[in-house]
Design brief:
The complex is a heterodimer. Chain A is mainly alpha-helical. Chain A has a domain at about 65-195: Four Helix Bundle (Hemerythrin (Met), subunit A). Chain A contains six helices and two strands, in the order H-E-E-H-H-H-H-H. Chain A has helices at about 15-45, 60, 65-90, 95-125, 135-160, 170-200, and strands at about 50, 55. Chain A has a two-stranded antiparallel sheet. In chain A, helix 4 packs antiparallel against helix 5 (about 135-160) and helix 5 packs antiparallel against helix 6 (about 170-200). By secondary structure, chain B is mainly alpha-helical. Chain B is about 60% helix and about 0% strand. In chain B, helix 6 (about 205-230) packs antiparallel against helix 7 and helix 10 (about 360-385) runs antiparallel to helix 11 (about 395-420). Classes of the chains: A mainly alpha, B mainly alpha. At the A-B interface, helix 1 and helix 5 of A face helix 4, helix 6, helix 7, helix 8 and helix 18 of B.
Chain lengths: ~220, ~675
């Protein structure tokens, strides 16, 4: 974007890297607001949602924690591969970079596939964006995160193909990959937080962290 | 990335063979005419465009204000209908804040920050162009709602099926500038037809998407300016040698990047409620409208400081110049600006004292609101300390700056009254509040920005604004403003509510409302005169000297108008107010050995920022029209997203490009004789 490599900067940090950190700071506030919305409503309405037949459904019965744990693990591992890709780029090992970034893309797609499956599955269990506050906050929060992952996958695919033009090289090439890596790691960290406060806390205690005052969960 | 071919420096890029991007697209290279203005990446031209659009929208918002005041001139008036009145005050507030003050501040950021820090451009020139065009198209999308409203009043849509299905036919936004839920949101069960579930018409959808797009523009610009200020300072320009205006730009940009995400999320949630039947703010299904208020004001209160800090920065440049003294207590001014930035995030609930927060939060927010008056007061005292004992020269910018201090202080005093929760519960939603924030935003921000326009105008266009007309306009603005908003304190304390279409006789409000309307017209004429003076003298004014005011900071060391490359050689500074010291026997400004025979490297122009912004325009028009129920408009939204992605992709692969521009033969900056000009 800029002639960042051409001139030394006052802080010694490259323009592109600094702007990415600033974007991530802003994105922290963005996800902070979304996650707060979800948690506020969970505290207010501990019971989950009412499905199409008028049955009260509990979130613990809805979630498929094994599947989500699997997709979380996949996303974590994609961050590992991303770190390898960045390291390879810094060493100028373009073939290794391509292998690793292809792995990141694949793992990102698996994560997105799991999310698509999860959304369809929950929809068939009766959770829609329209029938409850939980549905609205859950789909919008995790969907926004999914959009971030999808943008990251698109970005990495473009970088992957760009590497074949021979122009992704040297300091600037390594920097471009590193910045994509910063974004990818950030999106991963946000997922760790979402996985904890949206999914895992529902399993604290017999009725989840929000549901201790309401009726016991029945299958 | 495309790399600049090594070539001899040129005086104009058109002397070179056309530059092609990697996929063979020709890059624009005109430096004059329409093609130049559409594709420019020069921060100075982008600044001028920001200023021109902002002044246009200021006048538009002013016309809306005068419609409101005309309606309120006498009791039981029917100059405009009640629905039209709602749309007028909503669009007046939205226009003034997002399309008037913020872009005019952005005009100063763009024009001044690189010059003040000794840089040749911003860190990301094309991103800067993207911010500009995204702002322009967001503003355009928002105001297209007026076209639909006009068509509705003219009966253009009577034969269309979608029109007959609309329950509410207010096409311009009509919820107030904060669009409180549930009025802006939905009610009832989601299985009903979506249109039947809304409290308001599609004006709200125009507002949602318009503000969202304007937010993108502000965020992109802020990222750019933070990087520019951190990374592109000339050698020796340490943080504590930065001109105060640049400091306030930095604080403002941080406020924007940290506060705007809250409104972004709130707007997404509200959009999902309205378009897809979600329940974020739908009271029927358990949504909590109060959440909107919190999210809005978590953004909205920092927004107040986003509006005022640039004006404070401008005044902090003008007062020392015309007092011929260094700014009194520079570190304290900078520090208090930063403290205002921090505390600005901790006072949002003082907008919500009457919502029943409970005693502890109310007391806490009350206390913090009183606390934020301290750094503001510190600044006022420092400005007074700057004038004290100085050799004061009266010029239009100085007069407006002094007006700023007075009027902003009046607004600050009534603000402290609001910080007391019991008093505030009496003043909530009355004209007292209207008086308060107009004293802050008009008496403060507008006077500050006008002072800035008159101060830097000679540098921007190389011509002097007409001083007598400037004085007349300043007097009309300050007098008309006090006549319009002073009486509103009284009207508010006697109970006149905000946002009401009209009022009955017998409350004792007739006289002061009439006075306020006269004041508003004087104010409107004054602002128009002040702007017309600028536009006229931009073409016909007397040629200005390089440094007509005996300025203090680096921008005054440059010729007027400033050449495309700004500094023929990068300056090296060793002190605050480097240019003033340089001229008057203090530390000299040095120069790096760049910009020699190889010329100055310039970024190439580009169509891509404009193309990406066109994508936002399509989304901005598509969503509200889809919301009206016009068939097939969803495709416009999808196409808009496609254009956006295409624009960003082409932007990425074309690379920054660049060429080398010839500079005058290498010479260090020389002081201009100034003593005689101002004796």
């Amino acid at each position: 974007m800029s002639d960042s490599a051409a001139a030394p900067t006052s802080t010694g940090i490259d323009h592109k890297k600094l702007i990415m950190w600033l974007f991530l700071a802003s994105d922290c506030m963005f996800f902070g607001t979304l996650i707060s919305t979800h948690l506020l409503y969970r505290k207010l309405y501990p019971t989950g949602f009412t499905d199409a037949e008028g049955h009260v459904r509990f979130v613990q019965n809805l979630f498929d924690i094994e599947l989500t744990s699997f997709s979380t693990f996949i996303l974590l591992m994609s961050s590992f591969l991303m770190a390898l890709a960045v390291s390879a780029m810094h060493k100028g090992q373009i073939a290794s970079f391509r292998r690793n970034v292809l792995g990141v893309i694949l793992f990102g797609l698996i994560f997105l596939g799991c999310q698509v499956y999860e959304f369809t599955h929950f929809y068939h269990k009766g959770l829609t964006i329209q029938n409850s506050v939980f549905g609205s906050t859950f789909y919008v929060l995790t969907g926004t995160h999914g959009t971030h992952v999808a943008i990251g996958v698109l970005w990495l695919i473009l970088l992957y193909f760009y590497s074949f033009t021979g122009k992704l090289r040297g300091h600037i090439g390594a920097l471009d990959v590193e910045i994509a890596g910063l974004y990818w790691h950030f999106v991963d960290i946000v997922w760790i937080i979402i996985f904890t406060v949206v999914y895992l806390v529902e399993y604290l205690g017999p009725n989840g962290i929000w549901g201790s005052a309401v009726a016991t969960i029945t299958p | 990335m495309a790399t600049a071919a090594h070539h001899a420096p040129v005086t104009d890029k058109t002397e070179l063979p056309v530059e092609r991007s990697d996929i063979g697209l020709v890059r624009p290279d005109r430096t004059t005419g329409l093609l130049d203005w559409l594709t420019t990446v020069d921060h100075k031209k982008i600044g001028i465009l920001y200023g021109a659009f902002a002044m246009f929208f200021f006048l538009l918002g002013g016309v809306e204000a005068l419609a409101i005041r005309t309606q309120l001139a006498k009791p039981n008036n029917d100059f405009i209908s009640a629905p039209m009145y709602n749309q007028m005050f909503t669009m007046h507030g939205t226009t003034m804040i997002f399309l008037g003050v913020m872009p005019l501040s952005a005009a100063f950021f763009n024009f001044l920050v690189p010059l003040q820090i000794g840089a040749r451009d911003v860190a990301f020139p094309r991103l800067n162009a993207f911010s500009l065009w995204t702002f322009v198209f967001g503003a355009f999308a928002l105001n297209v709602s007026w076209v639909f409203e006009f068509g509705h009043l003219q009966g253009w849509f009577n034969n269309y099926e979608w029109y007959s299905k609309l329950v509410y036919k207010d096409f311009a936004p009509a919820n107030g500038w904060f669009s409180y839920a549930p009025l802006s949101g939905t009610f009832g069960q989601a299985d009903a037809a979506l249109h039947a579930q809304r409290f308001t018409g599609v004006g709200t959808d125009f507002w949602i998407i318009g503000i969202q797009i304007l937010g993108v523009a502000s965020l992109a610009a802020s990222f750019n300016f933070i990087v520019t200020i951190f990374n592109m300072r000339a050698p020796g320009m340490t943080m504590m040698r930065l001109p105060v205006f640049t400091w306030m730009t930095l604080v403002t940009a941080f406020l924007i990047i940290l506060a705007f995400p809250a409104i972004t999320v709130a707007l997404i949630e509200l959009m999902f409620d309205r378009q897809f039947g979600a329940n974020f703010f739908n009271p029927t299904n358990g949504g909590q409208p109060i959440l909107w208020q919190h999210l809005f004001w978590i953004f909205g209160h920092p927004e107040v400081y986003i509006l005022v800090l640039p004006a404070m920065g401008i005044v902090s440049e003008i007062l020392p110049t015309f007092s011929r003294k260094a700014l009194f207590g520079y570190p304290i001014i900078v520090f208090s600006g930063a403290v205002i930035g921090f505390l600005g995030f901790a006072v949002w609930s003082h907008h919500m004292f009457t919502t029943g927060l409970g005693p502890v939060p109310t007391a806490a927010f009350s206390l913090l609101t009183m606390a934020i008056a301290v750094p503001t007061g510190v600044k006022i005292f420092n400005w007074v300390g700057t004038i004290w004992g100085g050799q004061v020269r009266f010029t239009p910018p100085m007069v407006l700056s002094l007006g700023f201090i007075w009027m902003f202080m009046c607004g600050g005093f009534s603000g402290i009254m609001h910080s007391s929760a019991p008093a505030d519960s009496q003043q909530q939603d009355t004209y007292f509040v209207v008086a308060h924030f107009h004293y802050v935003l008009l008496g403060g921000v507008l006077l500050g920005l006008m002072a800035g326009l008159y101060f830097w105008f000679p540098k921007i266009f190389g011509r002097m604004p007409n001083a007598p007309i400037a004085y007349i306009a300043s007097a009309m603005v300050i007098f008309g403003f006090n006549l319009a908003f002073g009486p509103m304190h009284y009207l508010g304390l006697t109970g006149m509510p905000r946002r009401t279409h009209t009022y009955q006789t017998g409350f004792g409000w007739e006289q002061w409302n009439f006075v306020a309307t006269i004041g508003a017209y004087i104010l409107g004429l004054g602002v128009f005169l002040a702007f017309a003076n600028l536009v006229w003298t931009a073409w016909r004014g007397k040629r200005a000297e390089t440094d007509p005011w005996d300025g203090r900071t680096l921008e005054w060391s440059l010729p007027s108008p400033v050449p495309a490359y700004n500094f023929a050689q990068t300056p090296v500074v060793t002190t605050r107010d480097a240019w003033f010291e340089h001229k008057h026997g203090g530390a000299r400004i040095g120069a790096l050995a760049d910009g020699g025979p190889e010329g100055v490297h310039m970024p190439s122009q580009s169509w891509m920022p404009l193309l990406a912004a066109v994508g936002f325009l399509m989304v901005g028009l598509g969503i509200p029209m889809m919301s009206m129920g016009i068939p097939h408009l969803g495709w416009l939204v999808i196409a808009g997203l496609g254009v956006l992605i295409l624009g960003i992709w082409l932007w990425a692969i074309e690379g920054p490009g660049g060429y080398h521009l010839k500079t005058p033969s290498a010479k260090t900056v020389t002081p201009t004789p100034t003593a005689s000009a101002h004796a």
